[in-house]
Amino acid sequence: MVLLADPIVAADPVVEGQARDTLVILEDSLGSMESTHGAFLRLLRERAEGYGGRVTLKHHESIAAKGSGFALRRWGRWTHDSVVVLAPSLTSIGGEKASEVLGDFVESGRSAFLVGSPTMSGEVRDLAKRFGVAFHDGSAKALDLFENRGGDGEVIRATNYGGLGDTSSVLRAGTKSKPLLWSGVGAYLDPRNPLASQAVAGHSTTFCPTKKGFVSKKKGLRKFTGTDVSLVSVVQARNNARVVVTGSLSMLSDEFMADGETSNRELSVDVTDWVLGYKSVLRHGRIEHSLLEGMGERGETKDRYRIKDKLAVSMKVEEWSAAKQEWLPFEGEDLQLEFTMLDPHLRKTFSKDAEGTFVAEVVAPDVYGVFKFVVDYNSLGYSYIHVEEQVPIRPFRHDEYERFIAAAYPYYASIFSTMAAFFLFGFSVLYTK
Amino acid sequence: MLGDLKEIVQVFSREYSKTPKLLKIVDCFILYALTVAALQFAYMNLFGSFPYNAFLGGFFCTLGFAVLTVCFRMQIDVTQTEGADKLGNLEKVFADYCVACVFLFFVSISYVG
Question: Residue ranges of the OST48 middle domain (chain A) (predicted)?
Answer without folding.
Answer: 300-432
